[in-house]
Amino acid sequence: MMEMFTVPMNVSSFNETQTSSSEKNFIDATIYYMVLFLMSVGVPGNVAAVVVMLKMKVRTPAVLAVAYMALFDSFALISKSISYGLEYEKVDFGVIGCKLYYVPVVACSSIANWTLVLICAERFISVTFPWKRSQIIKFRYLHKTVIAITVVLSIYFTIHFCVFFEWVDGKCRIVNSYLAYRFIRQAVSTLSPLILIIICTVSVMRKVSFSKVNRNITMQTKLSRRKLEAFMSRIMITTAILFFVLNIPYIVCVSILWPALDFTRRLDIVILINISYFLRDSSHALNFYIYVISAKGFRKQFFLIIKEFLFKEKKKRDASIALGARFNQCSILKRASKL
């Protein structure tokens, strides 16, 4: 006989016998609007990050990897907003929805996390094996790796949720072991990327300083390429630190605290866990702003794009005004000729 647990479609779906319905509704609404806030902040920032990286004068696989990560961060925020919105409106998912509901949310988040692993691995190779960098890190390898990660994780999480979720008596339930479901999911989506990111980041930071990275990797390259390498290393380290800081509370709460408390759904525990969820989701929304603050090259390129955009708009307005003035002048001349 399989052991069954009611699925908390998000952590706020706790036992109403221990909390009032008004408290539950308040927490559900708070979670939903917090995620909407993250999407409103994160998606424009991620789109801007993609534009800035693709506008770089010197483009490398690392630059493209950052653009890929920003793209999947946006997908993660959008899918989470839709997910929480459906939960908030208490939509009936049905049999298929029960099994596939979480796949886009978890898959997009996981792909973004593993793309950050690729960025850290690229920096690690560039610092540790600079003479092999051009042979190992190529654009076509990056494209194939990102596609492979996307396909593998999408298929894996589809199977994962089909195995662990069942529609029973009008409710979506987790079958077999809840601990196994939670541990496997977190290990693949967050814990494994976090461990690899820590290893690569610590190795890079211990190997050389930013100035030494600049000299060792790009001794024979142009100044623009050296500056790009330096700011890519800074982006990698600051992004990795941000990822660590925002995901550690989530891992501790969900993987250690919650099981240790026997899955208690007291209001205080639910609030604490949802705060950790909010911090975790923030890792998909704040990268662009970290780039602007920490990387001078990124900040300079971003403001240059803004300046060019405003200049083009000004030229369009000036051209429109000039065209209107010519049209008025022609009209005046026509009327004068008739007289």
TrEMBL record:
TM stretches of this protein: 31-54, 61-82, 102-125, 146-167, 187-205, 235-258
Matches recorded under InterPro entries: GPCR_Rhodpsn, GPCR_Rhodpsn_7TM
Bilayer topology term: Multi-pass membrane protein
Localization terms from the record: Membrane
Annotated G-protein coupled receptors family 1 profile domain residues: 45-291
Gene3D superfamilies xrefs: Rhodopsin 7-helix transmembrane proteins (1.20.1070.10)
GO molecular function: G protein-coupled receptor activity
Keywords: G-protein coupled receptor, Membrane, Receptor, Transducer, Transmembrane, Transmembrane helix
GO cellular component: plasma membrane
Family recorded in the similarity comment: Belongs to the G-protein coupled receptor 1 family.
Protein name per the record: Green-sensitive opsin
Species of origin: Biomphalaria pfeifferi (Bloodfluke planorb)
Origin organism lineage: Eukaryota, Metazoa, Spiralia, Lophotrochozoa, Mollusca
